[in-house]
Amino acid sequence: MGRYALLVATGEYEDVRLSRLRAPEQDVERLAAVLEDPDVGGFTSVEVLRDKTDYEIRRAVEEVLAAREAEDLVLLYFSCHGLTTPARRLYFAASNTVQDRPAGTAIPRSFLNEQLEDCRASGRLLLLDCCFSGAFVEGFKAASDIAVLDDAVLDDVGTGYVVMTASNAYEYAFEQDSLSLDAPRASLFTDVLIEGLASGNADLDGDGWIDVDELFKYAQGEVRGRRPDQTPQFFAHGSSTPLRIARAGGAPGRRLRRTASYTSGQLLVARGFRAAAEPVCRTLGPMGRRAVVFVDRRPVELSDASAIASALQPDDPRDSLGAEYVRDLVREVRRDAGDGAASAVAVARAAIGGLIEAMRDGHNPVRLMRGVRAAAARAVELIAEAAVPLKMRAVEGLATAASGDREIGALVRDVVGVTGRRGPILVEESKGFGLEHEIGRGVRFDRGYASSLFVIDAARREAVLVNPGVLLVSGHLPETVGEAIKNVPGDLLVVCEELPHEALAELLEAQRPVIAVVVDEDGLNQLQRAVGGTVLDADLLLSAKLRSYGRAKKIVVTERETVVFVGRTSVGGGPAGLIRAGASEIAKVERAVRAVRSAAYEGVLRGGGVGLAEVGARLAADAVGTLEEIAGWQAFAAAFAEPARLVAENAALTVEDLDPSLLDSAGVARVVVNAAAGTASRFLLVG
């Protein structure tokens, strides 16, 4: 059994005698969202046609009706100009309709009627929001009373061919206080239909369902109460049981919702996000599962959130946009924290679900977004307050949790034991198999590249230099730097105290990897002790010899930090580590190292997502703002419990039974919160 809808909205017309209508475009968007909502309309497919020609509309109507089976429900909706001829023939205007020649350029009433009569679907509903739309049913027999469904057939869609019109054959359809021929506002009739469906108010008998009889009675009462000169009409053929259009959400005495504020685009994103998030979330925790996705039509078993998100191709093309949201979120978290991508997806998925509920209650999405952003800012403060310093004995457990590999956790512990928790550690792919490491000398400082144009690896937003020279310049870098370095072979790191625009432009024109970092005098001296060479004055730059340049084995520069590994040849700097891993393990090692590094600076929380859930509970109690901002705040705060719930579910445990010795990096938690808030805000701004 399927539920299918085709919504036709025409507001722009080539014939200037047919005035522009503003209502159809916004009406059809809102109605599509209500019908697609799985908790309201639950329609299998909702197709929307905006400002199409008569040929395109006829073709779409025929396709949606001809493909139906006997157990289906099909709904057609038209919002456009209704045109009648002196002979009382009714036409529905398309974008190319000529006002005084509708027979050849508009959709005739007879065409729609014949298509609906021939359709095999047991349930057929036609909604007409047009002037003179009551003329559609002239000659029909008036509808008789429709029987109320018995509890034994709650799942039946009902039977019959039903027509509901915004007005009778002689009336205009009004848009609030003006004629729809002129007004730029929402249509009164469609607005009332959406209100009754989305709020549940049209469930007049309180059985949790809205059928066409109830919907019409509700719409008629509301329209007539606001516009006594507009008379909606209702006609039914062959109805034995009423057509059920939507769920109302509960039994008598339930809390009625306000008119939903979401759009069909938002529901589309939420649907795709849920589908793509599911396999990613299954990887959470020590007992995280693997997902099977198809790569080049072959099934592949994956356990890494980034690999799953990149490889996943939704079966339904409607899920593609939501899946792209998941991919973007995973990339952002991996870039900024290394670890935590699956947790961010879990938080964002739960937040989006909560925000849809808030919009289902009528809350404005922009005000909800303000609440989400305010909550994220407060959550970052609470994470910092809850974090405790990382102890050396906890390094192995943290690295193991981040990588999902005990061997990697033990290796990172050994390297950190030498370098210190904040010491420089680099990771590179080995030419062989297995894990190995090298301890040497190096330095790390909290200054990154001077311009994002220096980025070499765009996906990771970093620059890697292999066996580079290091040019150290005190004061400002002169614009003659391009001439000075042109004969220096290989990769080059340029470090100075000031970088004028002219000198930056010279470096960016280099035909090889050249990266510039701006540091203070202490940073220059610290780096010189590690890499050797000489700190040069600007006026000596052109006469500098190759021996004036320092040397390093590997340097990695990001937007926030620079890590220099010199190797065993240096006597300066501090202990530094270089870990080599095979292609299948390098991502895991990088996650472990970055988790330890962020924890060394920002502390740790209880692991398994429990610490984040505790922050969420405190966050919920701190909600401030307007009613709608608080709704967004609360929806976001409630989502913090989702990672812990999934970690426990994947391990067949309860949250209370999770290992209390597990730890999560507070720095990773901060990135997770900010990234999930950004995704939720992006979702709320979908029109």
Find the CATH topology of the largest domain: Rossmann fold
Radius of gyration based on Cα positions? 32 Å
> Tell me, what is the CATH class of the largest domain?
Alpha Beta
In whole angstroms, the N-to-C terminal distance is 30 Å
Number of strands: 28
Indicate the mean pLDDT.
86
Q: How big a fraction of the residues is strand?
A: 15-25%
Give unreliable regions as ranges: 141-157, 174-185, 250-254
Helix and strand composition category: alpha/beta
Query: How can the largest sheet be summarized?
Result: 6 strands, mixed
The proportion of residues forming helix, as a percent range, comes to: 25-40%
Shape-level CATH architecture of the largest domain:
3-Layer(aba) Sandwich
Overall 3D shape:
elongated
**What is the total number of structural domains?**
4
Number of helices: 21
Spatial order of the strands forming the largest sheet: 2-1-3-7-8-12
Description:
The strands form eight sheets. Strands 2-1-3-7-8-12 form a six-stranded mixed sheet, sandwiched between helices. The chain is α/β, with parallel strands linked by helices and 687 residues long. Helices cover 39% and strands 20% of the residues.
